[in-house]
Amino acid sequence: MRLKLASKPLIALFTAAVLIAGCQSVQPPSTAETPKTQEETKTPADTSTDTKTTEPSKEPATDTAKGDSKETPRNETLYINGLQWGAPTNFNLLSGNPAFPINYGNSRELVYETLFMVNELNGALEPLLGTKYEWQDDTLHVELNKDAKWSDGQPFTSDDVVYTYQLGKKYDINWSSYWTYISDVTADGANAVNIKLSKDNPNRLTVLDSIEIIPMLPKHVWEEIEKKANNDLTNIRKEVNSDPIGSGPYKMYFYNDQKITIVRDDNYWGQSLFGKLPAPKYITHVIYKDNAAGDLAFKSGQVDVSQQFIPQVWNMWKNGTPIKTYLKDAPYYVPGSMPSIFFNFSKKGLDNADVRRAIAMSIDYKKISDLAMSGYSAAMEPSLTLNTAAESKYVDQAAIKSLQWTTDVKAANELLDKIGAKKGKDGIRVLNGTRLGPYDVECPYGWSDWNAALEIVAQSAKAIGIEIRTKFPEAPVWTNDLQTGKFDIIMNTPAGGVNPSQPWSRAHDIMYSKQVAPIGEMAFWNWGRYKNDKADQIIDQIPTISDEAQLKTLYTELTKIWLTDIPSVPLMYRPWVFHTVNESVWKGFPADGDGSDIPPQIAMDGAGIRALYQIHN
């Protein structure tokens, strides 16, 4: 089933979330990792869901806070969970790991805003602090919103944009990587900037990506912070920034180790853009100890928007509880990434494309979806693109059909027979003197959906005479194995994230061999050290092309190479956000087919921020 999520003509905008040397390439992981950061949630061992309906209480159940808890009216407060898993330590964007709602990647539009908002449904970049952009030769010209102001009343200007970009050049922070592709950022009057491409790496995709990724900071505030810290990043990161000055619709209100509350800025400049203020006066993120506690609060109506992984979510609404997912039916959530296994091309046996194809054909993808993902993954259609309208349009689906595989154990055995891989007395095949196993397949311990998926991979391989063993080290060991190539088969998410640059950035992570360190040294993409000169050429070419027909030809050719060589195998379609809502208090959340084109980005990141202007009591 191919998901159709975009009702408007799709806009051919690309950006890139390319991970370069110095930036760890590990993507937001399984739904099962011990809660630490915004996308990392912990799957409870008990997958049963209480279906008893309970009236919502005034305040989520938390231990008594020290001091003034700043309790807020329930009908004015939107409660959320799943984005903050520990007590907040700072609200400093330069710290590396700020708390909600400052975190770089899940709540960018609440306090600090970006120039444009990405819409995951169609790839469009919607205006925010920026009003429009256009390429002028090797320069991206961006017009800024003249109405925009900081929460302290100071105007937002081009100086703030230049300053924010320059911070990434001056210090090693989240957006420093963009300077690999940018030579300069300059003001063009008070309300426009010019972002010039690097002559050595003129990649338009990454520059476009920057205008929807980088949160803007007020120069007049952060210059003082820099001065106080003697321009030393270590000292700058010690700044808690508990009352941040941003341009967004909310300001800090209260926080402790149990919850974080922000309050609407009734002087928000965006009233001229959105036509009104957001509906919730307050947004509170309650910090639960685990998924079980968060799920119970959500089920009872104490939480309105849950970003947690909820196993068997359909049990939540069996007794009429007003709980909804973005998609009415399975797979319930919009796919946003493809966790995959990668083969080490230096390993005998795995260096054979037919062996890799046989492994891919043996895998029971439906079982992975049903058991590891609670059915949240649609039927697998192997491609470099997600099975969504926003991505699948870039590939000629008929042209790749003959190369795509399905679960077919009989055909996999026949393929191995054909290439002369004969079974030994122990049932394991031998090819050209190389026993096909044991091969270890690994991912971090405790990431239960990934662990379950790899158990299925190992079980499936037995049926075709290939021995695969699961290996679940601690996350730091897995990270080192991934990057140094110290693995046989390993699981990771290539270019995770919902960006208009997809599927280019995903193809880059899987296939691009240029500047990849040899095995034993750190690599930040192409972890299996796959090499195909034609693939490299196409990946280099795509960012220079704007013609959609030509792009489709290039992506189709690149996908054919991938389907032929099989450097990786996607195991599931995984949502980038688990947008589940309880409409006991707040109603009108966006849903597929409602005509709003508001994406399920937790109602507070990217174009998902528009949901805050649509919901009501």
Automatic annotation (TrEMBL):
Keywords: Signal. SUPFAM superfamilies: Periplasmic binding protein-like II. Residues 52-74 have a biased composition (Basic and acidic residues). Residues 125-499 form the Solute-binding protein family domain. Transmembrane segments: none annotated. Residues 27-74 are annotated as: Disordered. Pfam families: SBP_bac_5. The keyword Lipoprotein does not apply. The keyword Signal applies. InterPro entries: SBP_5, SBP_5_dom. It comes from the Bacteria. This is ABC transporter substrate-binding protein.
